[in-house]
Amino acid sequence: MKKRIVGLAGMMIVLSTAWCGATELKGTQIKGTPGHDAQIVSATVKLAKSAKVDRIEGGKEGLCIQSPAEQPLCGAPFELIGKTLKPGSYAVYPNIPEGKERASVTVHLK
Questions:
Q1: Nearest to residue 64, comparing CAs of 76, 49, 47, 50?
Q2: Which of 17, 36, 60, 87 has its CA 20 to 30 A from that of 96?
Q3: For the chain, which residues make up each domain, given as ranges?
Q4: Average pLDDT, the chain
Q5: pLDDT at res. 37
Q6: What radius of gyration do the chain's Cα atoms show?
């Protein structure tokens, strides 16, 4: 019985650490008049410690990860996977594919 309780407690610690360690950046860009009024919707996420870009959903036409403290990190998803983000605040937005009115992207951090 004690082994089961200890095993269950250990498993809960591992799962909660893994769950809390994952962060997502989500963003959408909505097309407007070229160069004038495109709308970017992205909640700012604050990182207390460095995080690495683990995977990216969407953004096949490219995306930018922005921080007020650094230059934007822009590129295709395959170019950004593995990049490390320093502690700070970040938002993300995708490029809009030709012929589309909007695009969304989710960046998973580890």
A1: 76
A2: 87
A3: 24-109
A4: 85
A5: 84
A6: 18
